[in-house]
User: Which sequence fits this backbone?
């Protein structure tokens, strides 16, 4: 684990990438997707000039997040003669930064890397905190490391080309972080998720969510305690996402539904204010309904996916609940409780 | 990087594996080779009882040290439902411990592992210090991590079944470590390499080499400074090994020749005592001659392999020389100097 990342936030900062992150004046290994290179490649290349740039393309999107893709990136970097003092730059969504970060952590026993997230989820969550990963056929993120990027550049202007459904995912992750760690900012955002999706005025909330995550990660880089509170909504969310084959609900939509179910349990068991929970649940279910237009029915597939969530150790399954805005607690939650909370979302 | 490893040394200690290393009373994931399981599997299984044991087999030997083998180990562990508080045990030579250690470091972002080296090289060197790796078609150990085992068990009785040529490899690595870091012990061992290969009385030298390596690794776990002195003999050694297709000279034989060449340069440039160097060079060339019966001629292939050595960064190539017994220095060494040193070994 390296030192915590430098995180630079600013509209238009992508054009100042090397000075903003103090990137060495050496050849750059740029890992990115064809889409991102088409949309933002010129900005990145001219920012990096006169450095030679080795471009390593990978598809974005969950199906590309595989051990085989990791192998391809390693092959390309080694084939181009990467050395210990070289570095990767990952420009793309969470899949690109997760896979490129893992490649950086195992190339020559670890080379430096920099992250330029181009999606709102990447900016708010995926690129911050040093978790790297690829998926395995039996579960998401089962192979990975902790390997913090040396620097993360957040340029909200890169979001101008982001499709609406991807933008909505980011709104959910931002709202989640604020609900867990920045209660005042969460209250300001509550009730306005749809409006934010429409007007895309996200900079202030995004910057606050990043600051909150950076603080929590600094206190718990290895995800052994407090950092797990950022999994709020994710235990059931991951299972919902998997149960819908990763397309009926996006990650963000599934997490919104997972947050709604966790808020129901929080109100019933932990004293989260009842009226606030009702309002948040109905907003989150509307916002996260996805192609199915709402929460799924309970199913065996969903229950099995809950059991495979890697966050668990061999003890009882635990989840994050809230005793109040900004007050997360870690509690055992049995599948039957998830089931009734989920079913209440369909009422 | 975890805390430094506990290293337990003792004849017969394999039968007390769990208590010696304080292995958790949970299911064990045992990564090993068919040969090691045939020779030592019963001892390990009965030591681990009543823990259930998931056996994950991989071939030993350099050709198995691949990204594909790594993928197979990950598949097997994930398929058996490995969780964050599970652990691997790697029992075998350096290839098994290197690959299993890498698997442990990227499974679920890192699970614990324990090493039970069964070769002399593994005991003296490979299993100590937390370097993990697989090879790439373009070079050895190009993919890996630093992920120290929680415990290492050294039981010299496991060596009773080790073939002679493998035993000789270990003698070279032990002598190398002593020459760099334990001058008195190195003087005791010098002149007796062949005798040690015959009588196999290695316990005292092995224990001292392990203690020396543990100390150096504790001061420089990430191989950023002092630890590199343990690469003495390895810069040219790796190139010789590759130039012979990994069978004319074993790793240990190639390192013995690399040490001989480095001693020539040490005497010529750094003041290493001339007479001592002459005696050591002739002993090492005899001892490390391998199937070719001596050192190789200089070749383009060898020069290319020198350039690919991953230890280098983009600056001038450096190597470890000795200004005296136990006094390593890091110096730039140009290929022409290696060439004449190597040619002098054939005189």
Assistant:
């Amino acid at each position: 684990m390296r030192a915590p990342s430098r995180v630079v936030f600013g509209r238009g900062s992508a054009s100042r990438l090397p000075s903003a992150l103090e990137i060495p004046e050496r050849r750059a290994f740029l890992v990115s997707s064809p889409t991102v290179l088409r949309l933002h490649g010129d900005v990145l290349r001219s920012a990096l000039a006169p450095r030679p740039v080795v471009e390593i393309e990978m598809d974005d999107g969950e199906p590309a997040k595989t051990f085989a893709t990791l192998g391809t990136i390693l092959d390309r970097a080694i084939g181009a003669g990467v050395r210990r003092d070289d570095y990767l730059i990952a420009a793309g969504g969470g899949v690109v930064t997760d896979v490129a970060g893992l490649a950086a952590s195992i190339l020559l026993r670890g080379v430096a890397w920099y992250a330029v997230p181009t999606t709102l989820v990447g900016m708010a969550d995926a690129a911050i905190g040093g978790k790297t990963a690829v998926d395995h056929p039996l579960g998401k993120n089962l192979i990975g490391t902790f390997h913090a990027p040396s620097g993360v550049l957040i340029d909200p202007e890169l979001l101008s080309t982001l499709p609406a459904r991807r933008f909505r995912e980011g709104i959910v992750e931002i709202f989640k972080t604020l609900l867990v760690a920045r209660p005042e900012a969460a209250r300001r955002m509550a009730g306005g998720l749809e409006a934010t999706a429409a007007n895309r005025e996200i900079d202030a909330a995004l910057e606050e969510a990043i600051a909150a995550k950076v603080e929590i990660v600094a206190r718990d880089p290895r995800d052994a305690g407090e950092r797990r509170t950022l999994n709020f909504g994710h235990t059931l969310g991951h299972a919902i996402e998997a149960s819908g084959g990763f397309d009926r609900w996006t990650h963000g939509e599934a997490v919104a539904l997972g947050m709604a179910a966790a808020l129901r349990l929080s109100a019933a068991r932990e004293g989260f204010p009842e009226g606030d929970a009702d309002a948040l649940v109905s907003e989150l279910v509307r916002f996260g309904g996805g192609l199915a237009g709402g929460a799924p029915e309970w199913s065996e597939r969903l229950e099995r996916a809950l059991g495979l969530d890697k966050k668990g150790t061999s003890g009882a399954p635990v989840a994050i609940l809230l005793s109040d805005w900004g007050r997360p607690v870690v509690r055992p939650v049995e599948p039957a409780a998830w089931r009734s909370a989920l079913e209440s979302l369909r009422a």
